[in-house]
Automatic annotation (TrEMBL):
PANTHER family: ALKYLDIHYDROXYACETONEPHOSPHATE SYNTHASE, PEROXISOMAL
UniProt cofactor(s): FAD
Single GO MF annotation: alkylglycerone-phosphate synthase activity
Official protein name in the record: FAD/FMN-containing dehydrogenase
Pfam family, one: FAD_binding_4
Residues annotated as site: Important for enzyme activity: R308
Keyword Flavoprotein attached: yes
Domain FAD-binding PCMH-type stretches: 93-273
One GO-annotated biological process of the protein: lipid biosynthetic process
Residue numbers annotated as active site: Y456 (proton donor/acceptor)
Keyword Flavoprotein: yes
Organism: marine gamma proteobacterium HTCC2143
Binding positions (FAD): P125, Y126, G127, G128, G129, T130, S131, E257, G258, R259, L260, G261, I262, I263
Length: 541
């Protein structure tokens, strides 16, 4: 899977100027939004030139590897969270990095870390700039801030076809990974929704999960070893297939979010390009029937590459977004099979050899049938595959109309899934009651395991009359959703990482001793807290 991603990366929005996924909203969707949350309230948008004019002089001393011009600093100042979008569109960023370095080798990363230590500088590692949790944002600091972008370290360095281990520079983005591997007959198969822009080092640092993790595994299953440059020296992790020799050092690097060092080289487990791949859609009469089918498929370990289940409200929302002419024909088909209000949609993928796909497909269809499932036309699965990275592109056209969309996600055991989903949705839906604002929230299960699954909730709401009040809306929504997740016993993040936005919810999962242990680890590698401070760990000592 290699898409066209040519063009310049947009400075204040998702994607590139030449992306296949740029879009406008249909009249049907505009009418639907008005009915759901009210008329939109578009806010004025700052230009790049206006923001560049507000960038203060750099506090960094000159260095041949560091760029200090204002526009480069703006383009590396924020990620892709909703607060980042609000900051970039309002022009009120507050804090900028003082410079950006783009090292092309491990030696240059070492040089930059040494320079930072010698001159008392804070360092923020930067991959594709796709963080949705505040990982790469500079915070107010008396020390100058240097953002280190790994985007020049973007090559396949080695491929051991016998052991199926590929070595990449940590700044290699998803399309470049697949292009270089597929030219050799291999694939990594890691497709997070940020795949077009996010990088291999970022996936490791934030413990990413791809859309087809049911076949290929999460990034922790793919991550075989590599190198991380730290202020204490180089940490090299050999790609051993398995070991009982004490704690696994890979686990220190996974999810470290730049607090321990800068990942420069990543060794990953790859597989041969599959013979066949297809995606399919099935509808169930009710949430419980769909949930039972998905759980059975996961626990029986049917060899699917992906499996997700949309609840009734998400199913209705997605179908309405597809256009009235398609919706009418599909509803007629489903109603003829006894499926009406309350129906839910399951999307599933087959990837592998022809024989594997045939066998897994038959097992899946038999399971679906037992729970009242009705197969949808093949076009729905094809449409999902074509638009699988489209969702982030909705934010900009929504914003132009005065609407905003964001997500909350967690993972929890099967026995608590339905109750947790309902509590999270309800908390988000009610978060702006005191503002007399409606919030439209819906959910799908994005990844499944034998033990449980992830819960991924999307919510839409109107902008307020200005940017500060809109940010206040977001804070209420985020806190409501995160508090509900913590109260349910779910993880604060299944796939988006911790960063700045989730850090104060982390103690509920890790506990007092766990947080203390993580602080000790960070202190060993970075006693002066100059590596991405203020991220991952909660406030306080």
């Amino acid at each position: 899977m290699i898409l066209s991603t040519t063009g310049i990366k947009r400075w204040n929005d998702w994607g590139t100027e030449g992306s296949d996924y740029r879009m406008e909203l249909s009249d049907d969707l505009r009418d639907l939004l008005t009915r759901l949350v009210g008329p939109g309230r578009a806010l004025p948008e700052a230009t790049l030139q206006q923001i560049v004019a507000r960038v203060p002089p750099s506090r960094l001393p000159e260095h041949p590897l560091i760029e200090r011009d204002a526009e480069t600093r703006v383009r590396h100042a924020r990620g892709q969270s909703l607060p980042d979008w609000l900051a970039m569109h309002s022009g009120e960023l507050g804090v900028f990095p003082d410079g950006v370095a783009r090292p092309a080798s491990r030696e240059q990363v070492v040089e930059l870390l040494r320079f930072a230590a010698d001159t008392n500088i804070t360092v923020i590692p930067y991959g594709g700039g796709t963080s949705v949790a505040g990982h790469i944002n500079p915070l107010a600091d008396n020390r100058p801030v240097l953002t280190v972008s790994l985007t020049k370290m973007n090559k396949l360095l080695a491929l051991d076809k016998l052991s199926q281990i590929a070595t990449f520079g940590a700044g290699t983005a998803g399309p470049a990974i697949e292009a270089q591997l597929q030219a050799e007959g291999y694939t990594l198969g890691h497709y997070p929704q940020s795949w077009e822009l996010s990088t291999l080092g970022g996936w490791v640092a934030a413990r990413s999960s791809g859309q087809q993790s049911l076949r290929y595994g999460r990034i922790e299953q793919m991550f075989a070893g590599g190198n991380m440059e730290t202020l204490a020296g180089q940490l090299e992790i050999p790609p051993i297939p398995a070991s009982s020799a004490g704690p696994d050092l890979r686990e220190m690097v996974l999810g470290s979010e730049g607090r321990l060092g800068i990942i420069t080289e990543v060794k990953v487990r790859v597989t041969k390009i599959p013979e066949q791949e297809s995606f399919h859609v099935c509808f169930f009469p009710s949430w419980q029937q769909g949930l039972d089918a998905v759980r059975e498929l996961a626990q029986e370990r049917v060899q699917l590459s992906m499996l997700r289940l949309s609840n009734a409200l998400e199913t209705e929302s997605l179908l309405n977004m597809s256009g009235s002419e398609h919706l009418s024909a599909l509803n007629h088909l489903l109603e003829s099979q006894g499926l009406g209000d309350g129906k839910v949609m399951m999307t599933w993928g087959l990837t592998g050899s022809l024989r594997q796909c045939e066998f897994a497909g038959e097992l899946t269809r038999q399971c679906n049938s037992r729970y009242g499932g009705v197969a949808a036309p093949d076009a729905l699965g094809d449409n999902w595959a074509h638009g699988r990275f489209r969702a982030p592109y909705l934010r900009e056209p929504l914003g132009r109309l005065g609407y905003l969309a964001d997500t909350m996600e967690t993972a929890i055991n099967w026995d608590q899934v339905t109750d947790s989903m309902e509590r999270i949705e309800t908390a988000i839906r009610n978060a702006l009651v005191d503002e007399s604002e409606q919030v439209h929230a819906y959910t799908h299960l994005s990844h499944v395991y034998g033990q449980g699954c992830s819960i991924y909730t999307t919510y839409l709401f109107r902008c307020a009359d200005d940017y500060p009040k809109t940010f206040d809306y977001w804070q209420k929504l985020k806190h409501a959703g995160a508090s509900a997740i913590v109260a349910c016993g779910g993880t604060i993040s299944h796939q988006h990482g911790v960063g700045y936005d989730h850090r104060n919810y982390l103690p509920a999962e890790k506990g007092e001793i766990g947080i203390a242990a993580l602080r000790s680890l960070c202190s060993f590698f970075d006693p002066d807290e100059r590596l991405n401070p203020g991220k991952l760990l909660p406030d306080g000592k």
